[in-house]
Amino acid sequence: MPMAETACDPPLLDRCRELLYDSSPSYASHRTLNNGNDCGGECELPLIDLSCLSCDSAQDRRACVAAIARASSEWGFFQVVNHGISRELLWEMRREQRRLFGMAFQKKDSCCRLLDGSYRWGAPTATCAGQFSWSEAFHIPLSKINEEDDDDDETCNGDFSSLREVMKRLAGAISELAMELAGVLTENLGQPAGFLAQSCGKSSCFLRLNRYPPCPFSPEVFGLVPHTDSDFLTVLYQDEVGGLQLMKDSEWVAVRPNPDALIVNIGDLFQAWSNDVYKSVEHRVVANGEVERYSIAYFMCPSYGSIVGACGEPSVYRSFTFAEYRRQVQEDVRRTGQKVGLPRFLRRPKLS
Fold it and tell me: At the top level of its lineage, which domain of life is listed (predicted)?
């Protein structure tokens, strides 16, 4: 029996059906074009204990830095424990997140000034089912989270008076963690630890709250389509449902959830800056047919005018600003339904 949408769900079902019918003559043929079962098994991401970064042993700290750099080069992903962010704060944010997504769909786009314009669902530019994401999200700039409360602005109709305060505490804690990890990775390549802090202030970063409703077309429809992140560094807190997959050695592997760890991945800008030493790896979320999934992602981004150069010469990529990169990504997605990303900015483009 088809799964019924609730009042809080966006109209994913209707839009996905349209794309399924438009993109293939039959549902069976669609399954062969976009099969979520093409996964080579489950993996355990490199697990790094960050307490070693502040321990008294210089040898232990060097080993930790080497492990972070190696994972960033070989996997593009790793997970961290003893990261300094309390489980209580993460749970508190998850409670707020569940309540927020439990609002009626019609209210989500303009429920309050804090979240105004940050709500999105599905994929507006999708022209076939393979480009559609079965998910909804609030993509919120930290500059908005850190604004002073307006006495005349009742946060989310008065129902979420603690939302801004919890988001502000969490974003502040993850910002410090992201800066610490970015410092380790830049220092590993011979640059000052605070190099990226000059362009990646807290005001230019984003917090994204994700929800993946149960999907009747799972696993043929993605919760989030294959992509790389267009930032320097991403820090992810996910629940125990699972569904995150990444490309490793030319095959998709599923990431085993670890309730005690945060996941960190390299973004496009760090790959460009590091001259391909660190890898921005393609990843996706496979929708679940039975239960909903939640995650929270922090994106470490520079200001739009910041120039992304390389840490050494010869440079693989030409210099570009973050604004230029975002415009090109948006244009490619609008025209083709897919992100091209870094290949657009190679100093010597590869011949097709």
Answer: Eukaryota
